[in-house]
């Protein structure tokens, strides 16, 4: 009985260590890829940065492409689950601010996904709105739908506008990563970006003889 318990303990420990090692490899690879793109990541570089033996890495991932695909799938799922936790808001403007703040909070994950899309673009099905899947800007589409329902926004093509807004936000993420502003500087950036995008979508209402933005 004692030997059996010892074996089970060893097996559990080995499985735990294997899981931890896999996580270290994925997090390290994600960081390298997000910062430097596809060419910056090699199994040898990953071994050096993660302190995991090169031969050991191949026990977890057959090659770099399969490693990146695994990280991409997990990261996309994680971002989706975290976005669902965002609070309900009464206005589209506040929803937009929440989502911009969310993107900056998860900037490494988002930049990784963006660079993955860019590198593997030929492997994604081209749709009418481009190569980026609609789910990639669904969180902004929800903002526009809210704005239309509250009368804050006016648009003849909400899908196209959602994509443009998402690209605008993501452009800032790519520009500021990895030296992301913090504290007051980040707060000001989020507010400025929110105000600019909100103004671009604001509905016009007639007051007196003139149309003004609301």
Task: Explain this structure.
Strand 1 (204-207) and strand 2 (210-213) form a beta hairpin. The model is unreliable at 8-15 and 204-212 (pLDDT under 50). It is elongated, with a radius of gyration of 22 Å. The chain is built from nine helices and two strands. By secondary structure, the protein is mainly alpha-helical. A two-stranded antiparallel sheet has the order 1-2.
CATH-wise, what's the superfamily of the largest domain?
Tetracycline Repressor, domain 2
Calculate the mean pLDDT score and round it. 86
Residues in helix, %: 55-70%
**CATH level 3 topology of the largest domain:** Tetracycline Repressor, domain 2
> H/E element string?
HHHHHHHHHEE
Biggest sheet strand line-up:
1-2
Beta content: under 5%
Unreliable stretches covering 5 or more consecutive residues? 8-15, 204-212
**Total number of β-strand segments?**
2
Question: What is the annotated CATH architecture of the largest domain?
Answer: Orthogonal Bundle
Main beta-sheet annotation: 2 strands, antiparallel
Q: How does the helix and strand content classify structurally? A: mainly alpha
Distance between the termini: 75 Å
Shape: elongated
Instruction: From the alpha carbons, calculate the radius of gyration and give it in angstroms.
Output: 22 Å
- CATH domain class name of the largest domain: Mainly Alpha
């Amino acid at each position: 009985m004692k030997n059996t318990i010892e074996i089970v303990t060893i097996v559990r420990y080995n499985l735990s260590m294997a899981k931890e090692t896999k996580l270290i490899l994925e997090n390290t690879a994600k960081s390298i890829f997000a910062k430097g793109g596809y060419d910056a990541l090699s199994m040898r570089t990953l071994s050096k940065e993660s302190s995991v033996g090169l031969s050991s890495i191949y026990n977890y991932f057959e090659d770099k492409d399969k490693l990146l695909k695994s990280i991409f799938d997990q990261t996309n799922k994680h971002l989706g689950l975290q976005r669902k936790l965002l609070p309900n808001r009464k206005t589209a403007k506040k929803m937009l601010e929440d989502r911009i703040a969310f993107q900056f909070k998860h900037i490494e994950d988002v930049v990784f996904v963006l660079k993955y899309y860019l590198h593997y673009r030929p492997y994604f099905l081209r749709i009418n709105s481009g190569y980026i899947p609609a789910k990639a800007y669904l969180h902004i589409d929800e903002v526009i739908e809210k704005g239309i329902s509250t009368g804050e926004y006016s648009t003849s093509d909400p899908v196209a506008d959602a994509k443009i807004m998402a690209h605008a936000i993501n452009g800032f993420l790519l520009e500021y990563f990895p030296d992301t502003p913090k504290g007051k500087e980040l707060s000001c950036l989020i507010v400025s970006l929110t105000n600019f995008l909100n103004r671009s979508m604001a509905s016009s209402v007639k007051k007196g003889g003139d149309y003004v933005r609301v």
